[in-house]
Fold:
Amino acid sequence: MKIICIGRNYADHVKELGNTMPTKPLIFMKPPSALLVNDKPLYYPEFTKDLHYEAELVLKICRNGRHVQPEFAHKYYDQVAFGIDFTARDIQQQCKEKGHPWEIAKGFDGSAAISKFVNMDKLKNSKTIEFSMKKNDEIVQRGTTDDLIFDFNYLITYVSKYFKLQQGDMIYTGTPAGVGPVQIGDKLEGFIEDKHLLTCDIK
Ligand code: ZN
Structure:
């Protein structure tokens, strides 16, 4: 199982970090050991002083495929979850400045919080999926798939040119604006539509 992540996939988030607008998806990976399941807490890593949350919709791949054609892309996922791409922003910044890979800033243990998956056909509106995250009972991020720069089907086609998609793989599809820091004691809660799917305490 692999965890594929897409960076810079919502225009308002690209702007808030001062990055340039992408012309193709930006891909990175997290190892399976990054997964944080069953509403477990995240222990604030000792190597960072600027841990950020990024609320994201996560697709689960339901069949194997390479070089998936756009018209068939929708057959490769049928479930979505709420995920948090935890990022050590200070370490990521250092990596970016040096032109180094991001793994230590984004792939550390517990950096991929994930809720249970829900069937997309159970959603009220699977064409436009809305999601949001609360920090300490206040909404800090809100997103809708209408605002994706690269939509789910495009991501499936693009990613499968480089990496064979395998059943059980996950794709973190990017975060909207509103990313920010967490501190020990904070509580994060994730929602798809009005369904409460994830709680993550920072310890
Ligand atoms: Zn992200």
In short: The first strand starts at residue 3 and ends at 7. DSSP finds four helices and 15 strands in the chain. The mean pLDDT is 96. The domain at 3-201 is CATH 3.90.850.10 (Fumarylacetoacetate hydrolase; domain 2).
